[in-house]
Amino acid sequence: MLYNQPNPLEVKILSRRFGLPNSQSIDTYLANDGYKAFEKALGMSQEEIINEVKASGLRGRGGAGFPTGMKWGFLPRQSPKPKYIMVNADESEPATCKDRLLIEYDPHQLIEGVLIAGLAAGSNQGYVYIRGEYRYLIEIMDRAIDEAYARGYLGDNILGRGLKFHFATHSGAGAYECGEESALLESFEGKRGNPRIRPPFPAVAGAYQCPTVLNNVETFCSVPPIILNGGSYFAGLGTPKNGGTRLFCLSGHINKPGVYELPMGFNLMRMINEIGGGMRGGKKLKAVIPGGSSCPILKADECDLAMDFDTLQAAGSMLGSGGVVVMDEDTCMVKAALRIMRFYAHESCGWCIPCREGTTWLRKLLQRFHDGMGQRSDIVLIGDLSKNMLGRTFCPLGDAAALPTISIVEKFRDEFEAHLDGKPCPYEHASRLVTA
Amino acid sequence: MTFSPELEARFEKFLAKYPADRKRSAMIPMLIYAQDEVGSITDELIEEVAKRVGVTPLQVNEVVGFYSMLHRKGMGKYHVQVCTNISCLLVGGAELYDQACHKLGIGHKEVRPDGWVSLEEVECMGACSWAPAIQVNYDFYHDVTPEQLDKLLDGLLAGKTPEQIDEVRKVN
Description:
The complex is a heterodimer of chains A (436) and B (172). Chain A is built from 18 helices and twelve strands. Chain A has 436 residues and is α/β, with parallel strands linked by helices. Chain A folds into three domains: 26-237, NADH-ubiquinone oxidoreductase 51kDa subunit (Rossmann fold); 245-328, Roll (Ubiquitin-like (UB roll)), CATH 3.10.20.600; 333-435, NADH-ubiquinone oxidoreductase 51kDa subunit, iron-sulphur binding domain (de novo design (two linked rop proteins), Up-down Bundle), CATH 1.20.1440. In chain A, strands 3-4-2-1-5 form a five-stranded mixed β-sheet. In chain A, strands 7-6-12-9-10 form a five-stranded mixed β-sheet, with helices on both faces. In chain A, a hairpin with an 8-residue loop joins strand 9 (285-289) and strand 10 (298-299). In chain A, helix 6 crosses helix 9 (217-229) and helix 9 (217-229) packs across helix 10 (231-237). Chain A starts with 25 loop residues before the first helix and ends with a helix. Chain B has 172 residues and is an alpha+beta fold. Helices cover 42% and strands 12% of the residues of chain B. Chain B has helices at residues 5-17, 27-38, 43-53, 57-64, 86-90, 93-104, 146-157; strands at 78-83, 110-111, 117-122, 134-136, 139-141. In chain B, strand 2 and strand 3 (117-122) form a beta hairpin. The model of chain B has no long low-confidence stretch (mean pLDDT 97).
């Protein structure tokens, strides 16, 4: 069962098998081009595979948007150490719910992407780190892995070709921080999920300090179509330097929230109106978070833009993880900023002081503001505290907390002022204030 | 400490996944699956897991403290988790959480006296496009309405299991 109806404007590359009967099974997968890309990759050199991924313009779907082919190219393949493939399925950026579907509906596509990465890296061991809340996905993935072993796509003698590759699931236990690559590796090793200082990057010193290819689920799932159809085909689906399609997760005040696969560079206003079915209840659009809660917010009049990494960066925001949160005119931006900061204060691992202290104090300040006890000087203080977190932490969580906050304070200063002088939140209904 | 044969078999599989000198990697998966059986992360469990992965109990304890799904205190048989993060907040997640608090008479990470139901306000669980969402143990409920939540909680309060509550169905 699909969680939302597909839209005819979608370009289904990664999601083409979603909704097929028994889409999780290896038989369905094999009947629909499954493992053909891997068989093709068996006839390619490591350089050829990496060059094809480079040509595809694929950029990391976890949020940072780093070119995948380049990341694979950094791996010291001549190193005598074992090499690992690590799939980041810790999906926990608020507003993001796409990796869940990729594993739920098409787990073999992920296995195939990992196998091809294994060939490119000269690795014979991979793991998928799945967030603990996704227990049912661990079960789905385990079944798919068992099937792949039974059919000879995993094991010590893959397809009788003398190739060895093993793949296993690994459960997390609830920590946003472990979606960050170096914290994920610490957690994988059975430790607290604190980030590591980089460099060295995981490509050089990843799992067990060995060279590691670490990418998001969606990134690995993009690899089979790239190898099967060619990098230039995938690149042609998107915009320059932003190859392919991606799964956008639409949520918030729209009529048809859902996960939709669209070409990179799809216009955001069209996404809201033509894919998302327009604003709920005919309300006016106020703001959009374009790529998960870490991204600076866009005001309604800034939303007529192409959804790719470079356009969003030029607009002062980020494409991030593809979580598009649409907010209507009745949304209190102070409350939104508070809820986002509550999340980061809860999830800060406490390793770096600017983040640990910054997120906690910002949460307190924003709570005070929303409760109607803020002072005018707090508005500046919120901005200053946020700016002092930027770039001062091991991992990007500090920036992820600061960036949306800075943007909300700058773009919606009037809403903060409307909460001054003991006035109750202008957006809260009186009835709710009484019961709360 | 003794576990069910199923859990022992699982532990064996976990330990075989990682290189022989990297057993510590199995620690977190062992803890979370053991918690499902034992009910919480007890001192005894910490010592047992420490022994099996070859570290000190203190090294396990510091890990337990880091992860929000590992509980030193037992939760209810059915742990109701309501998301109030941004996507859910916009479409009524916070109101659902308030409703659950009132209905169950308990708050964040609290357990009903009979131990059947507990409640937690959780961060994003990855159901943003089908918000507001809740989880009961590991099962997802999407697009939850106040009426559905009422029926689910009424059923749980009457001592039913979620499977016995026909009006509300998990999606996964």
